[in-house]
Write a structure and sequence with these properties.
Two copies of one chain form a homodimer. By secondary structure, chain A is an alpha/beta fold. The first copy, chain A, contains eleven helices and 17 strands. In chain A, helix 3 packs across helix 6 and helix 3 (about 90-105) packs across helix 7 (about 225-230).
Chain lengths: ~375, ~375
């Protein structure tokens, strides 16, 4: 199965994540960065990952109005109409409802993959194989498929998916399974039980379904949101689209597709894969995937670094800069534009608070 | 005694110190910085300290050709001819020989004070009183007076002056004394003995003498250097001065006035004072003089700082920047232009080596 004109890809790229501050900022969030030094931004890598499966004209990117130009500069193959601008942030359900209606107006037979813009996938070929398999599974049906990841640790930062298969079966998760439950982020004790049971998988936030199938589910479980976007049928693809979207978006509930649809529908399936996935949601996960020197230091950002008596430390300084660090163990040092962060790696969960404090004390221009 | 038309002040401002890298750089050495946040650069403070004693037209600044414009921007009261440009760096003896010849050509009756551009003196009135006393002492004589500082610790970074007075006498050093010996920087054991003896004082590098007196001493102890600058008698103050100086300077020995004259002349005296002196030659001495918060942190440089769980740390970030630091104890964090330094305060003596390494690895543009 090569590209199909019925296959669409929706890249969700509205994040403003502050966990990578000051590398990511409001003006330049993580999806536009190359934090791993691969030579490509996350959004560019995401686009290229799906490109063998999806015709270029069948990509849509949903993002904030303020990032529209940035998206087009990273994905110059796209026409401006392929970048959908949310006037306000409203979680994944409104975003997916809008994109599905927009696709349906163009091609009611379409199947669609929905993906975050800022995840890392190292096993591209395996990933593409699984997505192809998923597309075959959902096409022409109401089945809603999510991609699961075999958990390698009791992570408390992810949602989990419980499969309806005999526990510890060899094939559990390596084929498409019916989902038993979606769970919110667990506490660490619960996460340990999940991982040990063999029945639970991480929710990657990557979905595969037919446009007809997801619209039917939205109509059933989130009828108000569905009705809002259904009302724009005649306007999608015209010059009136943005004004219509700007009018209906603010009234939408702030709700995730997981909570609004996936946890409620009986048509939900999971295909688990092993393709080197990480959401790179923290400096810790970035550190795990970074090239490290013999002292366990990871240098990035394009600047030059000299480290003396330093171990386990991430130093990320921007191009054209030099950093000399001495006597640090397990620290983060990040310099970008008008901001510098130095903190222990073990304190990374506090970065959001630091960013709030900086905003409150010194203003928006630093965040 | 108010200002006298016979009183001249020579400010030596040729330093390119790398100990404050990256705050001080080749393009902007320490004398042009306000590292203590007083609102004035060191050279400006030095000028203002002597201004009540010296007519504005009697100041000379000796510096590198490349800093001439910088000097004039910090001291706009001076005419360009008052800034003497060394074509190469040759320690203090050639610098003083040049300045003395230049003054003698204008006013053979002159008395002169020589001072580094980058020292801190907090007790200005007392300092001015002592300099006035010194000028009265040397005027019309061959006596060479140096200003000494009562040592507060066994510092190994300074030269010491031993006085020829009854040890531990109450007045030792509080009046003008004959100098017994000048010593180079001692090791720490020797420094302890010096401090305990009560006979030794720090050499501040501030000198008072008559122009005739210092020229006589230079003629006796450094005849080649003296002869070189004596040869320009007809050119000082004319358009030919710079070409003459550029021609003779490179051949001069690289020698300090202490080693070349003060250690050899029998006419050497010291007046010790207690006027809050520091050469601010290290981050440690800067830290001692900086305003600190309740956790012993010193913030400077014009930028904004948020510190969490941080003690005894110097954070110096440039204006318009914000730094968030967490989990540091007794560190230096300095950000300026294209460079960032993070090191333990106890490692500050290595900064010169780091700068050499940066220069070798990444080039001159960072230093």
């Amino acid at each position: 199965m090569a590209q199909s004109k019925n296959t669409y890809c929706v890249i969700m790229a509205g994040g403003i994540g502050s966990r990578f501050w000051p590398l990511s900022k409001n003006r330049m969030p993580k999806q536009f960065l190359d934090v791993l030094g691969t030579g490509k931004s996350f959004i560019r890598s995401t686009f290229e990952r799906f490109r063998p499966l999806v015709p270029v004209e069948n990509f849509l990117v949903v993002t904030s109005e303020s990032y529209k130009e940035l998206v087009l500069s990273h994905l110059p193959e796209l026409r401006p109409e392929q970048v959908l601008a949310e006037p306000v942030r409203r979680n994944t359900a409104p975003c997916i409802a809008y994109a599905a209606r927009r696709i349906a107006a163009e091609n009611p037979e379409a199947d669609m993959v929905v993906t975050p813009a800022d995840h890392l996938i190292t096993g591209e070929a395996e990933f593409q194989r699984i997505v192809r398999e998923g597309l075959g599974f959902v096409s022409g049906s109401d089945k809603l498929l999510t991609i699961g990841i075999k958990p390698s640790r009791p992570e408390t930062g992810y949602g989990y998916i419980q499969v309806d298969a005999s526990p510890r079966s060899e094939t559990a998760g390596t084929e498409i399974c019916k989902v038993k439950t979606f769970t919110e982020k667990p506490n660490v004790e619960m996460a340990r039980v999940f991982v040990e049971s063999g029945e639970f998988f991480w929710n990657s936030g990557i979905f595969v379904w037919s446009v007809a199938g997801i619209l039917r589910a939205l109509g059933t479980y989130l009828p108000e949101i569905d009705a809002a976007f259904a009302g724009g049928r005649e306007k999608y693809g015209t010059t009136q689209e943005q004004a219509f979207v700007d009018a209906v978006y603010p009234a939408c509930d702030n709700i995730s597709i997981d909570y609004g649809v996936m946890e409620k529908s009986p048509e939900v399936y999971v295909r688990c894969g092993d393709f080197g996935w990480s959401d790179i949601g923290t400096w810790g996960s970035l550190y795990q995937h970074a090239v490290r020197d013999e002292n366990g230091n990871a240098f990035g950002g394009g600047g030059q670094v000299l480290a003396y008596d330093t171990r386990g430390t991430v130093v990320n300084v921007s191009e054209g800069k030099v950093a000399v660090v001495e006597g640090l163990e397990d620290y983060l040092v990040v310099e970008k534009d008008n901001a510098l962060l130095i903190c222990r790696r073990s304190s990374e969960q506090n970065i959001r608070n630091y960013v709030e404090d900086v905003k409150y004390r010194f203003g928006e221009e630093f965040i």
